[in-house]
Amino acid sequence: MDLKKYQKIFTQESDKYLEQLDRLLMRVEKDTLNRELWAEIHGKIHSIKGMARALSLEKISELSHNMENWCKQFQQGTMKPAPEMVQLLFDGGDMLKVLVARNGEIVSAQDQRRYSTLISEFKKDPQQCTIENQPERRPGLSNPSLAEKINYVRVRYSLIEELLGLSQELLLAEKTLPSVSQGQIPTGLKNWIDDYTSILKGLYFRLAQLRLMSVSDFADLFIKPIRNLAKENNKEVRLEVVGGELEADITLLERLREPFIHIFRNSIAHGIESPNERLGMGKDAAGKIIFKASRERDNLIIKISDDGQGINRSAIVKHLKDNKSMTDQQIAKMSQEEFFETILNPGFSSASETTEIGGRGIGMNVVAQTTEYLGGSLSIHSEPARGAEFRIRLPVSLSIIYAVIFRLGDYTLSIPTSYVESIDQIRPASPDNSHSFYNLKTLLGVGDNGERPFRILKIRSPEEKYCSNEKGAVMQLMVDSIVGNKRIMVMPVGELLAKARLFAGVGIIENGDISILLDIEQLSEKTKLVEEYGPTSSSI
Question: Does the pLDDT at position 218 exceed 50?
């Protein structure tokens, strides 16, 4: 019997079941009497127990068996589950993750204590599980600040990179084909070469996608840690994701996992108020954290904001006075950016005492160091009683976005779908309304298409305002035809195109075709110049 083969299968299957278990427990936490949910939870734990017994993984089997006995009682309705009982099942699930990752072995004294405590608790009748009777249980059983590692890709990352490199070499080999005239190549051979080239481009596009992870999937990794942090601090918090369809390099996202936990911890510990305080202020009882992602040129922009009380200004002032020997006058002269960046200093903490959830004065410094290491920038904004926002700008070498692709003369161009207000089709503009449209052909030196119909793209501005012409209409771009709304893989522009200050990246369409992504911010500025000084015939 090949144990390694079956252990690998066991690990993969158990990881899947434990991920599903977390989601089911979060659902049943809000509907504790739902027997159907308890039946599903029972089934997941039973499956893990069965596989563990087959491989003689005794510790996993024992813990699963005792957890399963509790779930059976809740499923049958013989015992009414209380919140602390559900929490203990969360803790048991976390312990199972540790055991599964280590093939059922316990390697630290701390984990042994956690395991022994859990076994002892689950062997009791569920009604004996009360916080009052077990004041020492909570601190040692869970780690609310631990975000699960990215484990969706079940192949070695180095293999993905190797395959990408090979596919790039094949694409480059195409460029080295001897130059021959069209008449010298038989039609059948030419068609074969064209098909071969198209397949290579499509292969490269799909291999590159293995390096990518959607922002929504990345944000999902924080759902449980945020839930745990809120519960530990007696608060209610929900996470809202904006721009989740955007995809970014998994290596970049993995480096952001720990820094983002620090931001969430600070938002929950110091920013978001308790339910009673929020209700007294006219806010919803549950606080809200917004995780928003967008792409600007060659950068990934991630904003993490909350609707809490904002950053504690008095704590910053105290820190500046005590540690920087600054006077009130000097502090008053600081810009808002400089003032709030104080929380990034090593040793800064606004917590009244050192706790796991409050931080040790190093949390936000980790965020600043990681952002700097990745070549990015971090800015902070806060308003009293309205919350705080952390804006992180990071350079990315690769990402996937949806874009409206269109043609303009011989050019294939694209604009992020999120900026497109609408697409209209009209006949060529008359002299009376031609100034209402911005003609990209003038900028790119493309000849007019005569009397053929053309399309109008109505574009939003980067700041979600409308760029207006003198009549107050939305900025409108004249294009020849629309290819469609498609996923494109965006890579940085080269040095020559970057100098034009008009292009945000080079997009590769799934069929291998190339589309240049327009920089909406720069385009907006150029349209303002055209409106002020009039169109020019000079090209870029």
Answer: yes
Q: What is the CATH number of domain 213-395?
A: 3.30.565.10
Q: Are 270 and 357 in contact (CB under 8 A)?
A: no
The CATH code belonging to domain 3-141 is: 1.20.120.160
Dihedral of the CA atoms 494, 495, 500, 502 (nearest 10)?
40
Which amino acid makes up residue 261?
I
Distance CA 400, CA 98 (A): 33
**Which CA distances in Å does 138 have to 142, 228, 232?**
7, 12, 9
Domain ranges of the chain: 3-141, 213-395, 399-533
Exposure b/e, 37-50, CB count within 10 A at least 16 = b = bbebbbbbbbbbbe
Q: The pTM is what?
A: 0.58
Q: Which residues pair with 482 in a beta bridge?
A: 406
Which has the closest alpha carbon to 103: 166, 145, 61?
Answer: 61
Domains 3-141 and 399-533 share a fold: no
Residue in this structure with the two tokens 């409308």, named with its chain if needed: 466
Q: pLDDT per residue over 63-110, tens digit each?
A: 999 999 999 999 988 888 998 899 999 999 999 999 998 889 988 888
Percent of the chain surpassing pLDDT 70: 75
Q: Does domain 399-533 fall into CATH 2.30.30.40?
A: yes
Q: In 3D, which of 261, 271, 237 has the Cα closest to residue 340?
A: 271
- CA 199/CA 193 separation, integer angstroms: 10
Within 8 A by CB and 6+ apart from 304, the residues are 260, 263, 264, 267, 289, 290, 291, 292, 389, 390, 392
Q: Which amino acid is at 348?
A: F
Of all helices (H) and strands (E), which one includes residue 368?
Answer: helix 363-373
